[in-house]
Design goal:
alpha+beta; seven-stranded antiparallel β-sheet; single chain; Chorismate lyase; 23% helix; globular
Length: 174
């Protein structure tokens, strides 16, 4: 996933700061902002890790899940989950049958889960998140803000990346 890690000198936008820093489930918080919350699965695939990640090396096989989180039919968040196959096969969560269900609800309801720290990210128009925004008819006037967090599920790693799309920024006043 192409992303630029935000420098400490780069302040978070005030309208998004509490959302990016929230250590709880983004899914649950998003649901408070709408009447209808939906997950649109864009794709799932297995591929070697393009770069080293928390608990895996470049080239290790990962399962990827790419989704949009929609509030009242409007895509607000692009999310990419990266799961090493050892975590995938552990059986704590049946990743293959998630379908249109939000992963966040399952992760935060699992007793064998520990949460890592949040990393704030910026994504330009050339990133996958930027391209998805353009495909959705949400033009970018500046890089998108996101967050990335490693989770440990039964002592096995996975990473969730959540990027706020321009429609969310507009709705939140960013």
């Amino acid at each position: 996933m192409q992303a630029l890690i935000a420098e400490r000198s780069q302040p978070l936008p005030p309208a998004l700061a509490s959302w990016l820093q929230d250590k709880n489930s983004l899914t649950l918080r998003l649901k408070t902002q709408c009447r209808q919350f939906d997950v649109r699965r864009l794709g799932e695939w297995r591929a070697p890790a393009a770069q080293e990640g928390p608990g895996w090396q470049a080239g290790d096989p990962l399962w990827h899940r790419e989704v949009l989180l929609l509030l009242d039919g409007v895509p607000w968040v692009y999310a990419l989950t990266e799961v090493p196959l050892a975590t995938f096969a552990a059986g704590d969560i049946d990743f293959q049958t998630l379908g249109e269900r939000p992963l966040g609800e399952l992760l935060f309801a699992t007793d064998s889960l520990s949460r890592g720290s949040l990393t704030f990210t910026r994504h330009d128009v050339d990133s996958r998140a930027g391209q998805v925004a353009l495909e959705l008819g949400q033009p970018l006037s500046h890089p998108l803000w996101g967050r990335s967090r490693q989770f440990t599920l039964s002592d096995r790693p996975l990473r969730v990346n959540e990027i706020f799309l321009p429609a969310a920024e507009r709705a939140l006043g960013a």
